[in-house]
Amino acid sequence: MKIDAIVLSELHMPLVRPFETSFGVTRDRRILLAEVQSEGLTGWGECTAGEHPYFSAESTETAWQVLLHELAPLLLAAASPEHGGDCPRIFRSIRGNPMAKATLENAIWDLEAQREGVSLARLIGGVRETIPCGVSLGIHATIPDLLATIERELAAGYRRIKLKCKPGWDVEVFERVRHRWPEIALSCDANSAYRLRDQDHIASFDAFDLLMIEQPLWHDDFYFHSVLQKRLRTPLCLDESIGNRRDALAAIEMGSCRVLNIKLGRVGGFSEAIAVHNAALERGIPVWCGGMLESGVGRAHNIALSTLEGFTLPGDVSASARYWAEDIVEPEVEVSQEGEIAIVETPGRGYEVRADLIERLTVRKETIRAAALVG
């Protein structure tokens, strides 16, 4: 495919309600979008980096610079890519920056699906007509506030409740939730808030019949997670530690986890996400799709990824309305009363982008054209 231009836009979008994790509180999102124009078609990608380099080394600002000055010129200068799987080779000279790379790679996959006349889900090998959905609930001001939120989300049909946790916001919370709802699928996510010295405390989580404990220790660790997993009945799930297929294989081989969270941005795009999925599937490790407070563009990509065979656990792919008063796609992403999202079979990502709303929310914009690079 011949790429004519790449348009980068930064949008400012306020969340419906603040979202708190062990990193801090997020009230507004700086959403970075890439629009890849090719022979009358447009593919869209979203950068999932946060406003600060807390979850990963990347941030909205670093990703903008790398996309503008490195990755976009590389993609425009490359021999016409046939599909998204060519992007890792094209971007090979740039170390790290997986979220920036995923922004463009995922847009190319979207373009390819449109050219082929198939949905993005089918292009990548998806097998599901619907995907099961869970929700990720941030740290609340009080436990009664959290219980009220859980009640609302369960009434909306969500199949799994994930609680963000940290020292001081864990055991008492789990006790209250389990007392109220003994049978629900419940998990927790620490975002690396604990250390190995806390292993006795973490072992007490076994009493709450959790589906998994996500990333309790260091963001780049396999070994100490393997030590901790040996003490627990509850499966550990790794998120931040898994940057590629090699990491997934190492974690599985070392017994560092029994579940994997796959995030498109964290691993660099669909190519590596599919590779991680395949490695886990071959070894009987269940996977699920994590969320990063995406707009509808990134959410559409997560939906497609979640249709792969190994995604057997409810992910964090929830409805647009949980985060945004008005999303930038139409139709907005909706979850049924059965806690499922139906897969849209139109070519590409399946959700139309609202160019008018994007324009209204955009605070900066850059267009990189192939002709300008030649000149």
Could you explain the architecture of this structure?
This protein has 375 residues and is α/β, with parallel strands linked by helices. The chain has two domains: 5-117 and 358-374, 2-Layer Sandwich (Enolase-like, domain 1); 122-352, Enolase-like C-terminal domain (TIM Barrel), CATH 3.20.20. Helix content is 35%, strand content 22%. Helix 1 (60-77) crosses helix 3 (98-116) and helix 9 packs parallel to helix 11 (270-282). The two termini are 21 Å apart.
Mind sketching the topology for me?
Elements: E1 5-21, E2 24-38, E3 41-47, H1 60-77, H2 87-90, H3 98-116, H4 120-123, E4 130-132, E5 134-137, H5 143-155, E6 160-164, H6 171-180, E7 186-189, H7 199-203, E8 213-214, H8 223-231, E9 236-238, H9 245-254, E10 259-262, H10 264-267, H11 270-282, E11 287-289, H12 296-305, E12 329-330, E13 340-342, E14 352-353, H13 355-361, E15 362-369, H14 370-374
Parallel strand pairs: 5-6, 6-7, 7-8, 8-9, 9-10, 10-11
Antiparallel strand pairs: 1-2, 1-15, 2-3, 4-13, 12-14
Notable characteristics:
375 residues; Enolase-like, domain 1; TIM Barrel; 15 strands
Tally of extended strands?
A: 15
Supply the CATH superfamily name of the largest domain: Enolase-like C-terminal domain
Model regions low in confidence, pLDDT < 50 over at least 5 residues: none
CATH architecture of the largest domain: Alpha-Beta Barrel
Any idea of the CATH topology of the largest domain?
TIM Barrel
Radius of gyration: 20 Å
Beta-strand level of the residues, as a percent range?
15-25%
Classification by helices and strands: alpha/beta
CATH top level label of the largest domain: Alpha Beta
Number of helices: 14
Helical residues, percent: 25-40%
- Widest β-sheet, arrangement of strands: 5-6-7-8-9-10-11
Whole-number tally of structural domains:
2
Main beta-sheet strand count, sense and barrel state: 7 strands, parallel
Order of secondary-structure elements: EEEHHHHEEHEHEHEHEHEHHEHEEEHEH
Distance between the termini: 21 Å
